[in-house]
Amino acid sequence: MRCFLLLLLLQASACSSHESFPTGKVVDTVACKADPSQTYAVYVPSNNNGAVIYCFDAHGAGALPLNNYKALADKYGYILVGSNNSKNGNDWSTTENIWQALVKDTRERLPVDTSHVYTLGFSGGAKVAGYVALNHPGIKSVIVNGAGLPDGTPPGNFPFTYTTLAGEGDLNLTDLLAYDQALNKTATKHHLISYKGKHEWAPATAMDIAFGGLKADEGLAPTDLMPKTRTRMEMAVQANQFLRAEMECRLWLSYSPNDAFFKNQLEIITGNPAYKAQAKEQLAVLVKEQKTKEDYSANLGTNDSTYWPGVIKGLNAGAALPTLEGPMNQRLLAYLSLMFYSVSNHYLASHADAVARHFVDLYKLADPANSETYYMSAMLYARAGDTGNAMKEMNLAMKNGFKDKERFKQQAEFQAIKESLKW
């Protein structure tokens, strides 16, 4: 009896050490007690069950996925935690330090159930989510969005379930599809969720499937998961979108491999002549996409001033096509964005400013909603002593989502204007 009372006292003491974060509200910045330079955003649903999803954004916007998916956290009872330090450009040693600080602080201050810990990341953040799971036993599932595991990670028998989300217009779609196929040869339980969209955080409707899938992998599938999948499959068949219908069938079978109805539907769909024609068309589009990328690389240094504007104009027009070439053109635009970013970054670092200006302008033309294009442009104007245009471009960067105040203040080119910008 005394041992039982002692156990209750210890449990009560442990519970009392947890902090009372407001429920139903995203807290943007929580500083780690052991290292205040490490901060995170947190969302605690009122019905939290101790399960936690650690979220990693490519640009260190910890609150972004929390605001996107807080309704899903309420639906499933997940605590969401988003790192404000994890971002593209960090090395793995820095990433490891971020994770150690994050997991230590949250376990001390939140009612975390250590048997239900998941990671989620977008783009470079997806690689971080994968890195954590690969290097720290106890991560039950990984959800990657727009990218996969760290570069060079071969498909294997992973100790976690693995869910991939990818937009049809995502530049990494073909790589993600290939990796998902390769996992078929392993014992890893894996799922592929595709949606209409580009290289960005998945819409809540797609993430709902992934969050519900975490439950399904544990034998507790939400009651709406299968019926919604069936509805999407049937709607795709009615619209003669047999590739989409096949994907929906395979998705549910990845959760429930012995479902006789979906196995039968998959046979019917893949045996349909229209499906075979669409699969052949898809293969032709993927071959064309690869050839086009090679052509772009070959023409990177062209002196024809009309070439790239013409290419970009054609891709923007083609992105609206209702055929399989519509998403292909979206992926090619994203490919150009990444290519121009990489080249611009190289010439900026080399202080070849005239060449950098050429590629930064092309980057802006290919991806006008990307804050990095304006940030790079502002750097070039600042180097040239054009403070007015540097301020103008930085304001455009902020208008398009730039929020990294510390990066801006530490940038050598912006020392003369760092106190003038209104955040």
Structure in words:
- With 423 residues, the protein is an alpha/beta fold.
- It has helices at 2-16, 63-76, 92-109, 124-135, 173-183, 204-217, 225-238, 242-255, 260-270, 273-298, 307-318, 325-349, 353-366, 371-383, 387-399, 405-410, and strands spanning 26-31, 39-43, 52-56, 79-83, 117-122, 139-145, 161-167, 190-195.
- Helices cover 55% and strands 11% of the residues.
- Strands 1-2-4-3-5-6-7-8 form an eight-stranded mixed beta sheet, sandwiched between helices.
- Strand 3, helix 2 and strand 4 (79-83) form a beta-alpha-beta unit.
Largest sheet: 8 strands, mixed
Q: Main sheet: which strands, in order across? A: 1-2-4-3-5-6-7-8
Number of β-strand runs: 8
Low-confidence stretches: 1-16
- Alpha-beta classification: alpha/beta
Count, helices: 16
Q: Give the SSE string.
A: HEEEHEHEHEEHEHHHHHHHHHHH
As a percent range, the share of helical residues equals: 40-55%
Q: What is Rg?
A: 24 Å
How would you summarize what this structure contains?
The protein is an alpha/beta fold. It is built from 16 helices and eight strands. Helices cover 55% and strands 11% of the residues.
What structural keywords apply?
55% helix; 11% strand; alpha/beta; 423 residues; 8 strands; globular; disordered N terminus; 16 helices; 8-stranded mixed β-sheet
What order do the helices and strands come in, and which of them pair?
Layout: H1 2-16, E1 26-31, E2 39-43, E3 52-56, H2 63-76, E4 79-83, H3 92-109, E5 117-122, H4 124-135, E6 139-145, E7 161-167, H5 173-183, E8 190-195, H6 204-217, H7 225-238, H8 242-255, H9 260-270, H10 273-298, H11 307-318, H12 325-349, H13 353-366, H14 371-383, H15 387-399, H16 405-410
Parallel strand pairs: 3-4, 3-5, 5-6, 6-7, 7-8
Antiparallel strand pairs: 1-2, 2-4
